[in-house]
Amino acid sequence: MIFDDTICAISTPPGSGGIAVIRVSGPDAFGVCDKLSDLDAPSGRNNGVGDPVASSDTLSGKNGGDVVRHIGQRQANTVVYGSIYRNGEVLDDVLVSVFRAPHSYTGEDTVEISCHGSLYIQQQLMQLLIENGARQARPGEFTQRAFMNGKMDLSQAEAVADLIASTSAGMHRLAVNQMRGGFSDELKQLRAQLLDFASLIELELDFGDHEELEFADRTQLRELADKIRYKIRDLADSFAAGNAIKNGIPVAIIGKPNVGKSTLLNALLNEERAIVSDIPGTTRDTIEETLYIEGQLFRFIDTAGLRDNASDRIEALGIRRSFEKAEKASIILYLFDLTQKETEELVPMSRWLQKFNKPILMIGTKNDIARRSPIHTSGNVRAIHISCKEPADIERVKDHIICLANVNKVTGNEVIVTNVRHYEALLRAGESVKRVMEGLDDNLSGDLLAEDIRECIHYLGEITGSEIATDEVLGNIFSKFCIGK
After folding, report:
1. Which of 242, 298, 308, 381 could be disulfide-bonded to 377 (CB atoms 3.0-4.6 Å)?
2. Residues of the chain with pLDDT > 70: what percent?
3. What dihedral angle (degrees, nearest 10) is formed by the CA atoms of 392, 398, 403, 404?
4. For 397, which DSSP code?
5. Count of H-run helices and E-run strands, the chain
């Protein structure tokens, strides 16, 4: 893929605002912007982008030096203040930032024009740039050029999109770590070790006439394959946590009818989202809402009340879905009514809940009436008693949820997989390493071992982009980016 043209796009969000930024990148970025300064302007006023001039191209500066007017002659990493004219009239006063290849985001000559955020001004500036030789950029094309020019690998490029889309502290930390190369460094180490052994095995094949020669120590290869297999497995296993942080940690609210599930959801959201009624079976289907707690996104799922004898098929279907949501959730909130005699069943119930093998918070409701002490729990189950009418109790529930989610363990330096494409490639790489280990156990020949090693290297390379050769695949990845990035 060769980029021999110059592109432009509005890089700020669509609509009016205080300012807008229009980005221009490509081999003729400076030339395109210089043409803006050649537009006709009234005598004595700005002849385009640059310093105020009358008829000359330069103007004596305050310190006696010459201030060069044309953008293409400006120093790198400098900002120019000036005016842009359209049909002889001032379109806008702008700031123009100059970045020279290869020290720019895309690795190409790049110009960023900061103008006022009027839709009219943005449209007119885009028209001027296109009329003078640039073209409208495709979605993600600036980042795609950065990837193709070696400014970042593919996993880092995808992290740029994740960073833009981040809406929580956890998402932000993961995206920044990946964009700065944390994930890439892990993969480079794995690939480098595999490449060393692959080259030694290839060397053995070149000396096939000398069967006594063995350049690649099979014991060391076994140890390496075992180490890489566990590392790949750990990275793949982290996808569940990464996906939860990226898309929201699912929390299922379950329990018998009329124990306060909908009341708790409304209290957490601080709004009347779910219908609250003393009629059993009011909630027939699941209700999902999102909430940020300490910067982390959670998806709360209010479910139908659990009971043995449903009143009709619809309620029975809702109860079945309640169990399904509990199975898929990362955290379960099991509610029970402290004013009811059924609390005697809670100890065996807590043992039943442990089978879900996930964090569970048993919440006794209506404690403003009952005033009971929490039951003793163990394992993955803990219990608290609350009143949904007390804001302090709702905050206690939030604190327990944060603790159960254990999101604070994710630091900026931790490598966690959040991308489905990366996850699938890791699974395939893991399968290849497994075949290498099986081949070593079966004393397979070097050429067969080399084939599986190369396959593992290939799948790891797919993540960083070193093994992706088709424009179609890259186009599909970058098409998900916003225009202007």
Report:
1. 381
2. 75
3. 130
4. H
5. 15, 14
Rounded to two decimals, what is the model's pTM? 0.70
DSSP lists the bridge partners of residue 148 as: none
Euclidean distance between CA atoms 206 and 127, whole angstroms = 61
User: What does the alpha-carbon distance between residue 347 and residue 362 come to, in Å, rounded to a whole number?
Assistant: 11
Question: For 181-230, how does the pLDDT look when each residue is reduced to its tens digit (9 = 90+)?
Answer: 888 888 888 888 888 777 777 666 655 554 544 545 677 778 888 888 88
For residue 302, list its beta bridge partners: 253, 287
- Burial zone of 218 (CB within 10 Å; 0-12 exposed, 13-18 middle, 19+ buried): middle
- Stretch (H or E) spanning 394: helix 391-405
Peptide bond into 102 cis (omega under 30): yes
CA 24, CA 402: separation in Å to the nearest integer?
44
What SS3 state is found at 272? coil
Pairing of strands 66-68, 58-60: antiparallel
Whether 36 has a pLDDT exceeding 70, the answer reads: yes
Strand partners, 84: 92
Strands lying side by side in the sheet with 7-10: 78-86, 89-99, 110-117, 17-25, 7-10, 135-136
